[in-house]
Design goal:
The complex is a heterodimer of chains A (701) and B (273).
Chain A lengths: L13 H6 L14 E7 L5 E8 L7 E3 L24 E2 L5 E7 L2 H6 L2 E7 L12 E9 L2 H6 L3 E9 L11 E6 L5 E5 L4 H12 L5 E5 L12 H16 L3 E4 L2 H7 L6 E9 L5 E13 L5 H10 L9 E10 L13 H19 L3 H8 L19 H12 L1 H7 L5 E11 L6 H5 L2 E6 L4 E4 L9 H13 L6 E3 L18 H20 L4 H7 L4 E5 L8 E2 L4 E2 L5 E12 L6 E11 L6 H20 L5 E2 L2 E2 L17 E7 L21 H12 L10 H9 L1
Parallel strand pairs in A: 1-12, 10-11, 14-15, 18-19, 24-27
Antiparallel strand pairs in A: 1-5, 2-4, 2-6, 3-5, 7-15, 8-13, 9-10, 9-12, 13-14, 16-23, 17-18, 17-20, 21-22, 23-24, 25-26
Helix pairs in contact in A: 4-5, 7-8, 8-17, 13-14, 16-17
Chain B lengths: L8 E4 L3 H10 L3 E3 L3 H8 L7 E4 L9 E4 L2 E5 L4 H6 L1 H6 L1 H9 L3 H6 L2 H7 L7 H6 L3 E5 L4 E5 H4 E3 L2 E2 L6 E8 L4 E8 L7 E10 L2 E7 L6 E2 L1 H8 L4 H11 L10 H18 L2
Parallel strand pairs in B: 1-3, 2-3
Antiparallel strand pairs in B: 4-5, 5-10, 6-7, 6-10, 8-9, 11-12, 12-13, 13-14
Classes of the chains: A alpha+beta (701), B alpha+beta (273).
Chain lengths: 701, 273
């Protein structure tokens, strides 16, 4: 019996945000604070020849790479990206110099003239000679199986860049402390990532600390990028000896920061005439941009999900992340899976077309069920729900009848079946060794973790879990702002892990805390025994078995499952595809907070519709040419159809109260469901965004 | 790069007479709702630094009917036009344009005079005014001129206006026939037009104006002639294809604009018999 879990309790951060009392980074003004500005490259590739200051430098703090006390590298996975260009420029908008001044207008009026020697840039990942990572996942014998298949279906599918469009742009402020250390406060998902990067940048002589400020959205866009802007602010603060704030405006944020990796996915699939999958040969190419950043792990998740939620004895997935002279692409909700699952699901509909089969029947025949093995050879446990999601979505939408009824009209209906692994891939969670901390307070407990609230409900959901595990009221659980000086490093707020992994550690902390109290109230314990902190580490399920070299084994401890059905209408005059109804059936263990969970599904679904239909990053000469909310169009309410959200339950024993991860799952399905609905109308569409201009071209073929 | 606010100079006029006196003495860019000027200042793309705020010149705000002519004061906002019975009765295509421009905040601030003065080829009210044979009323401290909207623009965001002149109103003679408006934006709302068509069909004659297909709003005179001459619709569409030459830009393609303009004009003609 739970008191709080499963109920839509009031959000911990609700009143502050609703009343406008909450302070974001740009709301903070400290005495003596300077504004910081980044001078960026204007060419995609070349070397810096000269730098001239075409302004009166009085009152300015100017930082270049020579001011870096530690290492000029944004430490992440590979150490290839500099904080500040030394001579080589690899992409447009690469940081070269930093300026700070007390007067914002004076700062932004300053003109810096940079002369370059240019080199030929590479924009096409297929033409690039440099790969950041190559992955091969092999099961059975694909070549022979394809050769012997009764039917072989081939296809190539493409997805474009996508911008996160968090409401709050990237922003931080750095404060030089009296003890010689630097504290960076900022909008971010992963304070300990920023800490690690700052330590390398500032060197051993300057201790650093990172505190998250209230963060207005992330979607992966504030996973690795804040390490860059935090470093810049720290350098300016150190040199000037004053607090320095850097807030990007929307244009700078869109031009300079990360996007979803564009992808090209090619399938060759062998089947029986009856529709059984025999062999899948999949090639995945993603455009990493100019530096490695997180491309290799995005590629990893993308390739693991590339065979979709299907049973197939012989699979070979070959994936590579290529370097191009464009701003680095990075983490974005779904992390490679939306791209590869898009390709798989559109390919499945093309297979059904070629076999003359109903797309539902084809999926029913091949969907993974408990006991089946995935492309990495992982045997699914009883909490695999592909068929349940598919059947529920098909039944609720009257899919089969509408599929017939809409034939020959401007209406289409399409579906997509998908899944998403929760937590870090493979041995990632074991390597992370995440910890959570719970402190006793006079009324109850305080949660001290690095997991950030970025609008998705971390604080609320964690407090619910702790409240029920301890048996104390939800209101008596406080949640501290992540601060690397005091919070336990619960790992980054990414990978749909904050509930399932960190929530589970907190559940165990709460159980431990309850046992230690042994019936005493928190106040009694504090009075009679003294302060109490419980810190516990993540314990991965004992049956996890993963081989990083062969990419074989249990890629994720569990998966969340979903089936989306999109109905839409194509305007015969303007080729605009307008979704009229979306049904999203998703199984993610169980909802801790049903309203927040529904919000995640609705939000992720709309973000997926934008990815499918509207959001197009126009790249010209290696730079985003439409870096405004006017010209990079995300869906408005009027672009958002009615949605039927269905949450199925299938508890995962390794998650808190049976919960799995949910954050990313909802964005995997909408794009292929949209494209399959457009295909149902008769357009041979295989790429997104499916803007009307593209649909006109399809219609003219 | 944002335009530094400290370099800007603003004066505020509370009457038309005061505004015209100020403009006599020095050129200033008039602003009313400033919905487009603010955006350009934010992007550092607005060349002007000296502005004249005419928002408080209430005598420019009225919407009225005089001598069978609908007179829209330059400061008539989209919200005011949406609320106006005269606009609803006489110029329903303007009502449609006003309903679809921006969101409520923009509709509350944006004015018809500002839309004309701004001169964006994508301005949503401009095809309506062009199709309705509207006349722009310009006044200076010395004189008043009336310029048909179709003769108002000389090129991309350039007009026949002198620096001492202010748009005070736009006059729309009675429109007979069936009116049509279609905006095709980059999404369902809060979008800049990729093409925008306003048209009137009166029996066998048509007046058709299109935005976002040329440096200025354009009337499709050849298409209109072909339709009036009872040429086949296909022949008229051939005339349409010959008389506009849209371009590729970050919002759309020339191919799309041409094809969709044709489709929309076809739809207008067939639907308004």
């Amino acid at each position: 019996m739970t008191q709080s879990v499963g109920k839509s309790v009031s959000r911990k951060d609700g009143i502050g945000k609703a009343t406008g009392a909450t302070k974001y980074a740009d709301d903070v003004v400290l005495p003596g604070m300077l504004h910081g500005r980044t001078i960026r490259s204007t060419i995609p590739r070349g070397t810096v020849k000269s730098i001239r200051f075409d302004f009166d430098t009085t009152g300015f703090t100017i930082v270049d790479h020579r001011d870096i006390p530690g290492t000029n590298v944004v430490a992440l996975i590979r150490d290839d990206q500099p904080y500040l260009v030394e001579t080589e420029v690899q992409h447009v908008a690469e940081p070269i110099l930093l300026l700070a001044h007390a007067d914002r207008d004076v700062l932004f009026a300053a003109k810096v003239v940079i002369e370059y020697e240019t080199l030929e840039p590479v924009y096409d990942p297929l033409a690039s000679a440099v790969s950041f990572k190559e992955i091969s996942i092999e099961k059975g014998g694909v070549v022979a199986s394809l050769a012997g298949a009764e039917i072989v279906v081939e296809g190539e599918y493409r997805t474009g860049h996508q911008e996160h469009v968090y409401i709050e742009t990237n922003g931080v402020y750095a404060v030089p402390e009296e003890d010689g250390s630097i504290t960076v406060h900022g909008s971010m998902q992963c304070p300990f990532y920023a800490l690690k990067a700052l330590k390398g940048l500032m060197g051993p002589a300057t201790p650093v600390r990172v505190v998250q400020t209230e963060t207005g959205g992330g979607f992966g866009g504030k996973e690795e990028y804040p390490s860059m802007i935090a470093g810049h602010a720290a350098l300016l603060a150190m040199k000037s000896g004053r607090p320095v704030k850097i807030i990007y405006d929307r244009v700078e944020d869109m031009v300079a920061t990360t996007k979803r990796h564009p992808s090209i996915v090619r399938h060759r699939t062998g089947l029986t005439r009856a529709g059984q999958l025999i062999a899948m040969d999949v090639e995945v190419i993603i455009d990493g941009g100019a530096y490695a950043t997180l491309s290799e792990v995005v590629l990893s998740r993308g390739s693991i999900h590339a065979a979709g939620p299907y049973r197939c004895a012989h699979t070979h997935i070959r994936a590579r992340a290529m370097k191009t002279n464009t701003p680095p692409n990075g983490a974005f909700r779904g992390f490679g899976a939306p791209q590869t699952e898009f390709a798989m699901e559109v390919h499945m509909d093309r297979i059904a077309e070629q076999l003359g089969m109903c797309p539902v029947a084809l999926r029913e025949m091949n969907a993974l069920v408990p006991g089946d093995t995935t492309a990495t050879g992982q045997t699914l446990r009883r909490d695999a729900s592909a068929l349940e999601c598919l059947r529920e979505a098909v039944a609720r939408t009257d899919f089969i009848r509408k599929r017939e009824a809409y034939r020959g009209t401007s209406k289409g209906i399409g579906l997509a079946l998908f899944y998403h692994g929760a937590g870090f891939t493979g041995a990632g969670e074991e390597r992370l060794r995440s910890r959570a901390r719970l402190d006793l307070t006079g009324r109850g407990v305080r949660i001290l973790v690095a997991s950030t609230e970025i609008g998705q409900g971390t604080r609320t959901m964690h407090a619910q879990i702790v409240s029920d595990a301890m048996g104390i009221p939800y209101e008596d659980v406080e949640v501290a702002m992540p601060d690397t000086a005091v919070s336990a490093d619960s790992g980054p707020t990414v990978a749909s892990r904050t509930c399932m992994v960190v929530g589970r550690i907190l559940e165990r902390c709460a159980q431990e805390m309850k046992a230690r109290l042994a019936g005493r109230t928190p106040a009694e314990y504090l009075d009679t025994v003294g302060p109490l902190s419980v810190i516990l580490e993540h314990v991965p399920p004992p049956w996890i078995n993963w081989d990083d070299d062969t990419y074989q084994g249990d890629a994720y401890p569990t998966y969340a499952w979903g089936c989306d059905v999109v109905e839409l209408e194509l305007d015969p005059d303007t080729y605009e595809a307008r979704p009229t109804h979306v049904t999203a059936v998703q199984e993610f263990g169980r909802p801790i907070h049903p309203a927040l969970a529904q919000g995640q599904i609705e939000g992720g679904t709309v973000q997926g519709l934008g990815f499918a239909l509207l959001e197009r990053v126009v790249m010209r000469d290696g730079a985003m040419a439409n870096p405004t909310l006017t010209n990079y169009t995300i869906p408005t309410t009027l672009d958002t159809p009615a949605m039927d959200i269905v949450m199925l339950e299938n508890h995962y024993e390794g998650g808190p109260f049976g919960a799995k991860g949910l954050g990313e799952l909802p964005i995997d399905g909408p794009a292929p469901a949209v494209v399959n609905a457009i295909r149902h109308i008769g357009l041979d569409l295989r790429s997104i965004p499916a803007i009307p201009e593209t649909l006109l071209t399809c219609a003219s073929l | 790069m944002k335009t530094p606010l400290s370099t800007l100079h603003l004066r505020r006029a509370t009457s038309l007479a005061e505004a015209l006196t100020i403009l006599r003495d020095e050129p200033r860019t008039p602003v009313a709702g400033a919905t487009d000027v603010y955006v350009q200042l934010n992007f550092g793309t607005h060349p002007a630094t000296r502005f004249l705020d005419i928002w408080a010149c209430d005598e420019l705000r009225s919407i009225s009917v005089r001598d069978d002519t609908l007179v829209l004061g330059a400061l008539a906002t989209y919200t005011a036009m949406l609320a106006s019975h005269a606009v609803a009765a006489r110029l329903p295509m303007m009502r449609e344009a006003a309903r679809q421009v921006g969101g409520p905040q923009i509709q509350n601030r944006g004015t018809v005079g500002g839309n004309i003065a701004n001169g964006s080829p994508a301005g949503d009210s401009l095809p309506v005014l062009a199709a309705a044979d509207a006349v722009v009323v310009l006044r200076s401290h010395a004189d008043e001129r009336r310029i048909p909207l179709t003769a108002f623009y000389t090129g991309y965001r350039t007009t026949v206006m002198r620096s001492d002149e202010l748009i005070v109103a736009v006059e729309v003679p009675r429109v007979t026939g069936r009116q049509f408006f279609r905006k095709v934006g980059t999404r369902a709302a809060q979008a800049i037009s990729k093409i925008v068509v306003a048209a009137v069909r009166d029996g066998s004659s048509a007046r058709i104006a299109v935005g976002s297909v040329a440096p200025t709003v354009v009337r499709l005179r050849e298409t209109e002639r072909a339709l009036a001459a009872s040429a086949s619709l296909d022949d008229a569409m051939a005339a349409l294809r010959a008389e506009i030459r849209p371009i590729d830009d970050i919002r759309s393609t020339a191919e799309y604009r041409l094809k969709v303009t044709e489709n929309v004009v076809r739809r207008f003609w067939l639907a308004s018999i």
